[in-house]
What we know:
The structure holds 2 protein chains of 2 kinds. Chain A is of the alpha/beta class. Chain A contains 13 helices and 9 strands. Chain A has an 8-stranded parallel beta sheet, sandwiched between helices. In chain A, helix 6 (about 170-180) links the parallel strand 6 (about 165-170) and strand 7 (about 185-190). The radius of gyration of chain A is 19 Å and the shape is globular. The radius of gyration of chain B is 18 Å and the shape is globular. Chain B has one domain (about 1-235): Class I glutamine amidotransferase (GATase) domain (Rossmann fold), CATH 3.40.50.880. In chain B, helix 2 (about 20-30) links the parallel strand 1 (about 10-15) and strand 2 (about 40-45). At the A-B interface, strand 1, helix 1, helix 2 and helix 12 of A face helix 2, helix 4, strand 7 and strand 8 of B. Chain B: It comes from Cerrena zonata.
Amino acid sequence: MTTPAHTPGGSPLPVPHGVGNPSGTPVVAPTRSAPHKDGGNSSLGTFGVKSGLAQMLKGGVIMDVVNAEQARIAEEAGACAVMALERVPADIRAQGGVARMSDPKMIKEIVDAVTIPVMAKVRIGHFVEAQILQAIGIDYIDESEVLTPADDEHHINKHAYKVPFVCGARNLGEALRRISEGAAMIRTKGEAGTGNVVEAVRHQRAVMSEIRKASVMSEEELYAYARDLQAPFHLLKETARLKRLPVVNFAAGGLATPADAALMMQLGCDGVFVGSGIFKSGDAAKRARAIVQAVTHYNNPKLLAEISEDLGEAMVGLTIDDNLKGGRLASRGW
Amino acid sequence: MQQEEDSQKDVRIGILALQGAFAEHQIMLRKVTSKRKIVIVLVRTQDELETCDALIIPGGESTTIALLARLAGLLEPLRDFSKKKPIWGTCAGAILLASGVENAKKGGQELLHGMSITIERNGWGSQVESFEAPLEVEGLREPERPFHGIFIRAPVVISTNTSPTDPPIVVISRISASLLPTSQTVVPLDEDDTDPRDPRTVVALRQGQHLLTTFHPELTKDNRFHEYFVTECVLPSVPP
Lengths: 334, 240
């Protein structure tokens, strides 16, 4: 009887290796307790291959899909991965109730339909949903505030899995706490299902601003700042040295147009998630392809103008205030 | 005087920057010391490609990179480029360089046909099968020191199919056959786990000026592969 999520382990925290890392000294993390393919010569599920897959997704768009047909549309439109889920965030908001991990059968149908990586969401703290997704061979797990949290105090111990995790964050402290738990990729939380990019912008600006502050601090100041941010000192120090998060950082939550995607890229994100923004719009295939192009050519306004033309209707946007139906999802988790 | 200085013109190495881990290649390439000055160009348009003497196609998603290349009008220019100038493909880049692909997305996917091999996408399976393994590589500096191979949803070379007019394929690194995906049993494996007949053990190879790796040297801090590409593939092909 082994319960991966609760393996005491006690192995040292791997220092994740960076991307776009100015000093160019990626650190290959110590091999975790992974089974060996040939009795000791190779290793599966290392932090290197977990964060490495996120590096391969950079400059790409990860799209929410609810069935195999949508997954194929996303793949044809150039998605670098898809997120399999039962209801897109806009519907979770509208319908309410408890949102859980999707039916493994539906996820497997999506895995069979496409050749790109498939991600799926688990509830915050629900380590058994994560064990199930690892067992069916999913490529990435999103421990997501979009689903109803299963634990309001603890996140999953993500070191214990071969499958990598992505987690949401609103600021640098939250991002580093998730990385210290084993997340191999970070995304902004934004405010999912609103078609309103304002929260994603707020979160990305907060992270970047805090990194800039940390990057000019003395060691003494970093100790104090780590306390303020409630972040592990060694990860804060590594972030300050790299002048970026030590893992890949995507934008998510409320992106609906190619311009939204390019905005987040110019604010320093490595790529974008688009949830409800694609399949809740007028012409999903066309909009999806335009957003893929916008992420590649985010610094080319002339081309952005061309690809933004004639995309049909965008998803309906919601104002984010106290009356927001479904409430603020970003405040879930700590 | 001016002419003499210009006689060693800069070598321009492009990195296809449509999607994927291009920044990582840029960092590694910057650390390569060479007799001739290397200028790195991030390539997103045909104009940028045309200024380059050589090209690296990074890891990423091959379907995404191929679509973006087509939308940017780069597919044909890239195919022409592969006929004249050196290209190094890593992982997704290796798939794009191939002439045939298995496990392609439904409806097939576009390739550059730069090398005479057939390759299988995600040959080892999903991400939970991704692994790291030490490799012996022929021709690298300090050959006795293994190169750290990082294989992420890596492709597998299924067959080589050179015609008599093609440059020969030179294998520069193989992995132990015991690491091969268990789901594949096309060729029976030898006791000796470096069966020379089995193309699936090939993880790095050269054909003419081109270089192909199914793993990710750009994710290590060891720049010997980048150095190898510059000295063995690029410099000999760029006239001074």
